[in-house]
Every structure is written in C-alpha cells, then in structure tokens.
Amino acid sequence: MSKPGARKEAIKIYQDFAQEVENAAKAVMNDIHTALPGKIVSFDPAKGVASVQPKGRYITVDGASLEYPVISDNMGMAFPVRPNDNCLIIISEVELDEWRSGAKSEAPLRYDLTSAIAIPGIVLGGASAVQEAVEKEAVIIISGKSKIVVANGKIDITGEINFHGDIFIDGMLNIGGINLNHHKHTSALPGQKTGGPENG
C-alpha cells in the first residue's frame, strides 16, 4: 500500500496539472473574439472604414483588467455614422484581407480583432423613437430635424423634401392637408390669380 504522504503528493501533482491545463485553455479562449459592443471613434466616408473602440474589459489569465485596443481603419462600413455612435463588432471566423482588397493573406488569423466588421445603429436603453416604433409597429428614421415614419402602408415625412427627377405616385397624394388628386382652386377674375388649393 502506498503511504499517505505519497498519495497526497500524487493528488497535488494531478491538481497542479489540471490547473495548468485550465489556465492554458483560458489563455486560448481569451484570444478568441466573436462579437462585442463598441463605439465609433472616427469614420472615413471616402474609404468606408471606421476606427472602433470595443467596450468592456479584457481579463488576462492572471486576473488583470485591461481596455481593448482601438481597432483602426479596418472596419467595413456602408452606413451614415458619426463619432460616439454605438455599434456591434462582429469578429470574422477567417481573416478578411482577401475579402477587403483581394490580397492573399500571409498569416491567416481566426477570430482576431483585426478581422472585424462593425454594425452601427445599435440603440442603448429606451428612446422615444423606439417607443413610437413599437406602438405604431413602424420603421422610424430620424436624422437631425428630419423624420420618416413607415407604418400601415403609409409614409409620414417631417422636414424638407428635395426631388431631383421624375416622380410617379400610384395613389392619393396629400400635402399640407390638401388632397392634390381632387383639390380645387377658387375662381378668379381675368388677369387675377386663383385662390390657394382646397380639398374638393
């Protein structure tokens, strides 16, 4: 029979080995990134890329808490964005050089922060536009003082509208409360202007 001391030593060796395996596994997992929230730092519309600061903290194996680095000028964008906008950062399973520019990758990376794509438009917390969208079952777009609400087959627009080109409308057109399909004007004497448009 083995001595009690030898048995305790064997258990200690096993526990230390298991702990080292766990630490190694955690170290590998800490370097695998899939998705995390972030904030737009800057945006280059000519290149369609942004620099993004991931939110949250990176915890090392020894328990140290570090900020994530800014992911610079390699976040593909096709969306109007501004600094401090929130976004969701998706980390690609494969390296993105070939997809971005057609260049072959010399050192393919998996789940790396340099292979990131940002999806802007993430809303933090409640907002009046969100509440209105839920109540009306609508899609709402707000930009400055302009607002577009699409709900129940209707499009409501607040703000100026500038058209360039032909416009074809199949249905009723109401502007300023006047139905332009069936509106009328007050008659006027020859040489005078007619009255303003009225509903017919």
Can you summarize this structure?
The chain has three helices and 14 strands. By secondary structure, the chain is α+β, with helices and mostly antiparallel strands. The longest helix has 27 residues.
Task: Explain this structure.
- With 200 residues, this protein is of the alpha+beta class.
- The protein is built from three helices and 14 strands.
- It has helices at residues 4-30, 97-101, 128-136; strands at 35-44, 49-54, 57-59, 65-67, 71-76, 86-91, 116-120, 139-143, 146-151, 154-158, 174-175, 178-179, 183-185, 197-199.
- A hairpin with a 2-residue loop joins strand 11 and strand 12.
- The longest helix has 27 residues, at 4-30.
- The relative contact order is 0.09.
Q: Topology, pairings included?
A:
Elements: H1 4-30, E1 35-44, E2 49-54, E3 57-59, E4 65-67, E5 71-76, E6 86-91, H2 97-101, E7 116-120, H3 128-136, E8 139-143, E9 146-151, E10 154-158, E11 174-175, E12 178-179, E13 183-185, E14 197-199
Antiparallel strand pairs: 1-2, 1-6, 2-5, 3-4, 6-7, 8-9, 9-10, 11-12, 13-14
Task: Quickly list its features.
200 residues, 3 helices
Q: Mean of the pLDDT scores?
A: 76
Shape: elongated
SS-based class: alpha+beta
What share of residues is helical?
A: 10-25%
The SSE string, one letter per element, is HEEEEEEHEHEEEEEEE
What share of the residues does DSSP label as strand, in percent? 25-35%
Strand order of the largest sheet: 5-2-1-6-7
Low-pLDDT stretches: none
